[in-house]
Automatic annotation (TrEMBL):
Coiled-coil stretches noted in the UniProt entry, renumbered to this chain: none
Domain Flavodoxin-like: 33-165
Protein name: Flavodoxin-like domain-containing protein
Any single Pfam family the record assigns to this protein: Flavodoxin_4
Alphabetized InterPro entries for the sequence: Flavodoxin/NO_synth (IPR008254), Flavodoxin_CS (IPR001226), Flavoprotein-like_sf (IPR029039)
A GO term, aspect molecular function: electron transfer activity
Organism of origin: Candidatus Gallipaludibacter merdavium
Cited PROSITE patterns: FLAVODOXIN, PROKAR_LIPOPROTEIN
Ranges annotated as spanning the membrane: none
Entry cofactors: FMN
């Protein structure tokens, strides 16, 4: 199996509710030359890539499949499944970049089948990023940052994989503010942001919290699960919830899922990520 591609990576590892810690190695990224390389099918990932590039003054590189993924969502899924079953990666259009010029590379992609999209898998198969600092960012329907980072570490074992950023397509309007916070928190951009508290210990959900969970998740096209316990935190602009729910994975197996929900001041509840 090719190193940049993990078959059916939708079987994910359950992660806890703690926030990510800033990596000490990020401090040097502000002084190094950065590249934002990304694949975007619908334009969602491109918008995040452009925001990162704008804030950092970084170079950008967009990769594309030689045979583009066009047509309906269903057509893309059908083609992707066929390529995965046949262990085939799409051939990329030629691109011109001197990787040696960059110490820190932001790697952007939409989530397909629980991991990075197949064109990004092709890039990771073609290029050895040994010694580079890789910063993943992604867009998704429900989640996939954590599972794609796990696959990225397997695909590029000699690279340093740093904290990543992910955003739901439904919350793309929130991305500019979130990206800026992410870059400041992780040392890529000067500035100050509010320190986020830890989530409280998990407690059995109340009827009110179940109603809030359903309000946040009920409109999603796939059932996300039944909440069992919840932890909370309060910031100056929101109340955030970390639900542990009984759910099912892509194969229909019963699993626990961590589902993050936020209620920003004056707005309705939204779920931000599902981690199975």
């Amino acid at each position: 199996m090719k190193k940049g591609f993990t078959l059916f990576a939708a079987i994910l590892t359950l992660f806890g509710c703690n926030t990510q810690k800033k990596s000490d190695s990020n401090a040097d990224a502000k002084k190094s030359k950065c590249l934002v390389v990304y694949y975007s099918q619908t334009g969602a990932t491109q918008s995040v890539a452009q925001e990162i590039s704008k804030l950092l003054g970084a170079d950008t590189l967009r990769i594309d499949a030689e045979q583009p993924y066009t047509g309906t969502y269903e057509a893309t899924i059908e083609r992707g499944k066929k390529e995965m079953v046949n262990n085939e990666l799409p051939k990329l259009k030629p691109f011109d970049v001197n990787w040696a010029e960059y110490d820190t590379i932001f790697i952007g992609y939409p989530i397909w089948f629980g991991t990075y999209a197949l064109p990004m898998a092709s890039l990771l198969d073609e290029v050895d990023f040994a010694g580079k600092k890789l910063v993943p960012f992604c867009t998704y329907g429900s989640g996939g940052l954590h599972s794609s980072v796990k696959d990225l570490k397997q695909a590029q074992p000699k690279a340093e994989i740093l904290n990543g950023y992910g955003v739901r397509n439904a919350r793309l309007a929130k991305a500019p503010a979130e990206v800026k916070r992410f870059l400041i928190e992780n040392g890529y951009l000067e500035g100050k942001v509010e320190a986020l508290p830890e989530y409280s210990a998990q407690q059995p959900v109340t009827e009110e919290e179940v109603a809030l969970f359903n309000a946040a998740c009920g409109d999603y096209k796939y059932p996300l699960g039944t909440p069992i316990t919840v932890g909370k935190r309060t910031t100056s602009s929101s109340t955030d919830y970390c639900f542990i729910a009984q759910s099912t994975d892509a194969q229909g197996n019963n699993v626990e899922a961590t589902i993050y929900v936020t209620v920003e001041n004056g707005e309705k509840p939204e779920f931000t990520e599902v981690v199975r």
